Amino acid sequence: MPKTQPGLAIVASAAFTAGGLGRHSTDDLQRLLAGRTIGLGFTTRNDAFIFSGTTNRADLLLQFQLITAFMTD
């Protein structure tokens, strides 16, 4: 992150997952994931982009699919 733009990391983190995916808006994702234990986080560091997730055993595959979708879409 450029040192001259310190707020850029906060904006990127907030906007990235809030933007949804190409085929699914944030509202769509909330409906599709309702009743599932899925949490997705995205943060930035000076030298990295970090995805994180929280889930349970039953929803682990779906969690991986969601992170993959955000990384590739």
Kindly list the characteristics that best describe this protein:
73 residues; 42% helix
Q: How much helix, percentage-wise, in residues?
A: 40-55%
Largest sheet: 2 strands, antiparallel
Strand order of the largest sheet: 1-2
In DSSP terms (H or I, runs of 4 or more residues), the helix count works out at 3
Structural class: alpha+beta
- The radius of gyration over CA amounts to 13 Å
Beta-strand residue percentage? 15-25%
Indicate the overall shape: elongated
Tally of strands: 2
Q: How do the SSEs run, as a string of H and E?
A: HHEEH
What's the rounded overall pLDDT mean? 85
| Spans of at least 5 consecutive residues with low confidence | none
Cα separation of the termini: 22 Å
